[in-house]
Design goal:
Elements: E1 2-9, H1 13-24, E2 30-32, E3 35-41, E4 44-50, E5 58-66, H2 69-81, E6 86-94, E7 97-105, E8 111-120, H3 132-138
Parallel strand pairs: 1-4, 5-8
Antiparallel strand pairs: 1-5, 2-3, 3-4, 6-7, 7-8
């Protein structure tokens, strides 16, 4: 199964949890002091909100969550065969979860995350030291677990700097 993923930065977490719980007719599957996530089956969406946006509210990134390695590999192969710029983070932690992921950027600069969740963790993300291999795999000059952002038109997609409150 593939599940659409949307992550939105909000100003008031409690107010937005109340709004989206009413809109979806369901309570979040996970709530933390700075984060909430609904795992809906109808429609099949992983919808997350957080207060980690550091000055910007609204859409952070979109994504496709998969249930198995084969589907993740197929999404990666599709992006590579279409010659899309791709950041492969591999094994990483983010958004209270351990996952395998890679990123692509649409023509407007909107980041898309393709990922498989492997388990939960008790913090938003683990220390960058613990996921250094993922940073090296991504072959960028920044820490893992961050939404990619463009440097300039036509350039490689770097990852936000450490401490940016990403994901």
């Amino acid at each position: 199964m593939k599940r659409f993923h949307v992550h939105i930065h909000v100003e008031d977490l409690a107010r937005n949890i109340d709004f989206y719980s009413k809109m979806f007719g369901a309570q979040p599957a996970r709530v933390e002091s700075d984060y909430a996530k609904w795992m809906l089956d109808e429609p099949a969406v992983n919808f997350a909100i957080s207060t980690r946006g550091q000055g910007h509210l609204g859409l952070d990134h979109l994504g496709i969550q998969v249930d198995n390695d084969a589907d993740l590999a197929a999404l990666k192969a599709q992006a590579q065969s279409a010659d899309l710029a791709l950041i492969d983070e591999g094994a990483t932690t983010c958004c209270y979860a351990r996952s395998d992921k890679h990123w692509v950027m649409d023509p407007q600069g909107l980041p898309w995350e393709h990922f498989r969740t492997l388990g939960t963790i008790p913090t938003f993300r683990e220390s960058p030291d613990l996921v250094q291999d993922a940073a090296e795999t991504a072959s960028t000059d920044a820490s893992p677990c961050c939404t990619p952002v463009p440097r300039a038109k036509g350039c490689a997609i770097p990852i936000k700097p450490a401490g940016s409150g990403c994901c």
